[in-house]
Input
Amino acid sequence: MTRPIDHIPSPPPSLDSAGSAELTALTEQALQLRRRELELAIEKAFGQIPRPLRGVVHRMLGV
Amino acid sequence: MSRKSESRAETAKLGRLLGLDDQQQLAFLLKVPAAELSEYRLAVTDLLYDDDHELLERTAEAARLLPARTLASIGETALGPLICARLTGLLDPHRAVEISAHFDVDFLALLAAELDPRRAAEVVAAIAADTVVAVTVAMAANGEHVAMGRFVAYLDDIALALCLKALSDEDLLQVAFVMEGQQRLGFIFELIGPERAKRMLASAPAHGLVEEAKHVAGQLSGLRPKRGEGA
Output
């Protein structure tokens, strides 16, 4: 599920409203992309952690 | 140095940060003053690097359980350069350097391109100079001039001098165009000497880098002491 973003920085003040909306959309897109990449990477990484340590790492990460 | 070229340099940095392949997507920003773009870029950097901070901190904590070689293998094959870059600033610097020694140069170049050196200054400073040079050359080959420009302020003088030697004039000009910290620009030109500087700026039209050359030359002339301002 996509988590909401409520803290995108305010666009540069001299940018018009269309430009501001475009920049905000591109920034949101970059943030969502990074979030997806992090989720996938951690999921993939678990497969490579030596089996005896997986449970401990799972608990530490809380995922 | 024109306002337009300053804004173009800032737009290129923002485009890299947002992961945009086509800089034309941000063409509407070229009319915005560079200072405003810089402020926005720094705020977005914090947003992107601080998001999921708690999970990344727990990941860095969990990394203490595993040997450096295993972590490097997980980093290269599963986590990837972006996550490794974000973790770098959260690990103990000595541990981060130890892990980095197991990465190959191509992966280090991808990782460095995603790293915010402000958050990993100790790690950057502790990497061996020959590794820094190899990574620099690989980053230049990947066209990562914007990312390279972020590192200039964090390299020691020896590593910086070796990197300058290893880079082509064309690559160096592209890095100088977007690099952070004008004072370091003056030092770079001291290191490369007047002959290479002249050659680099003169060859700019052949590489389609006229605006970059004008911008850099303008910054340099701004750094020179004016008459009556001392030696």
